[in-house]
Amino acid sequence: MASESYDFLLKFLIIGSAGTGKSCLLHQFIENKFKQDSSHTIGVEFGSKVINCSNKTVKLQIWDTAGQERFRSVTKSYYRGAAGALLVYDISNRDSYNALGAWLTDARTLASPQIVIILIGNKKDLESEREVTFLEASRFAQENELMFLETSALSGENVEEAFLRCSKNILTRIESGELNPDRVGSGIQYGDGTIRKLSSNKPEVSSSDGNCGC
């Protein structure tokens, strides 16, 4: 199998309380199917996928962290150098929503204040059991400068969109100069294609096509 070629590699986290469907979101995104055996994650699970986003080929390295308190000390070490995160709660479980503030603080202090986070209200398929309204969560996202989507890991609704939207935001910030892939711990690496593009552009200092002035 030929080695993958990509423009950027981004490190992602999936964080939130136990039982919110984090592993199911990862599995649905990677495998395009629902994970039937949904036992709690012990420590950390890992997955990767190459996507096309904003005319770039992007490889996502995704770390799915355990939500149970007894694993917090282990999972916190994985926050370092993350470029993006899915902050997940269960729309049918108010306790998981109430815990969001603590998870958000962890992400911004342990990973980076610049980490790009999308708030995910998972289990959209459990509408009849809803405990957290769309409007309430939307307000929380706005107040904390987060993107926001409701998803269903069961049906796949908005799952790919969540990763795409977060990735697109990171790429936009790279192009604007707000995020620097060369900074240690940025959670962003150049792929071979991008390095070639950059080095071939080096003699002409001014690049007119605003494409990837990363």
UniProtKB/TrEMBL annotation:
Subcellular localization, as worded in the UniProt entry: Early endosome; Endosome membrane
Name of protein: small monomeric GTPase
Biological source species: Trichoplax adhaerens (Trichoplax reptans)
Enzyme class: hydrolase
Major subcellular site: other
Classification via Pfam families: Ras (PF00071)
Catalysis performed (reactions): GTP + H2O = GDP + phosphate + H(+)
Domain of life: Eukaryota
